[in-house]
Amino acid sequence: MDEMWNQIGYSIAKNIEKIVMPLFGTRKAGENVGTNVSGDVTKYVDRLAEDVALEALKPLPVNIVSEEIGTLDRGSDYTVVIDPIDGSYNFSVGVPVFAFSFGVFKGRKPVYGSVYEFTTGRYFEGIPGKGAYLNGERIRVKPLPPERAALSLYTRGRGTELAGMVKRIRVLGAIAVELSYLAMGSLQAVVDVRNYVRPTDIAAACIIAKEAGALVVDDGGRELRLELNAEAGNNIVAASSEELLEMILGVMNGG
Ligand code: IPD
Ligand code: CA
Fold first, then answer.
1. Model's pTM, two decimal places?
2. Which ligand 1 atom sits nearest the alpha carbon of residue 178?
3. How far is the CA of 212 from the centre of ligand 2 (A)?
4. Same structural domain for residues 164 and 185?
5. Could you identify the atom of ligand 1 that is nearest to the CA of residue 197?
6. Ligand 1: which residue has its CA nearest to atom 12?
7. What is the number of the ligand 1 atom nearest to the C-alpha of 40?
8. For the chain, what is the domain count?
9. Which of these three, 91, 120, 138, is where a domain ends?
10. Which-ligand-closest: CA of 40?
11. Which of 138, 171, 195 corresponds to the end of one domain?
C-alpha cells in the first residue's frame, strides 16, 4: 500500500515539475486567475499545477481535497489532500523554495504523506508507524537546546520574543518544506500562529514531521486535529523536543 501511494505521489510530483518549472520566476506564473475556496488569490501556476494533479487523481476512487478547488467528495473511504504548489509566491518571484504536498487518509487516519521539493529533487515521506524518509533514507528530527535552535515563525506579532531566545529565525515561505526540514533536522521548530495555515498546506508534512519524531500540537498544546478541507485556518506548533515545545507554548500563552 505504501508503495502504491509512493508511486502515485511521486509520479504526480514529476508531472507537475515538467509542466511548471519552465515558468519559474516569471511574471506569467504569478498572474491572478481567480480566487480559491478559502478566499486567497489563485495564481496561474497554482491552476496549472492543480490541473495536472487532478488529471492523475480523478480516475482513482478517492475523495480529493486540493487548495484551489476545495473538496471533491466521491464517497470513498480514502481522501487525498494535496497542495499542488506550496510556496507559489516563492515560485512566481524566483525564490527556489516550493513543493508538491500529498497526504492520504483513510477516514481521518493518516496513511501516507509526501512532500517533493522541486528544485532539489528531494522526496520526503512519512509512513505512519514506519518512520520518515528522505529519498528512501530514514530521517529524524535533531533536537538542540533553545539557544542553538533554528525556528520558523509565522506570526502577526504574537510570540515575537522568541526571536531573542533561539539562535536563528528562518521563515522560508513554504510551510510544507519547513516541516520537512524539521523532519530532517535542519530546523528545530516550525510555528504558525496566524490562525491561517490550511490543512492542504500542512496535512502531508505533519505526517512526515511526526514520523521523524516531532511533537505537533496547536497553540494551546493540544494534539493538532486537522479537518480534511482546504478552508480551515489553523495554528501549529511543531518542535523537535519537549523542552523547545514547552518554551514556545509558554511564550505564546504568556507563561
Ligand atoms: C503558503 C505557504 C506559506 C504559508 C502560507 C501558505 P501557498 O502556501 O505554505 O509558507 O505561510 O500560509 O498559504 O499559498 O504558497 O500554497
Ligand atoms: Ca499552494
1. 0.97
2. 10
3. 24
4. yes
5. 12
6. 197
7. 14
8. 2
9. 138
10. 1
11. 138
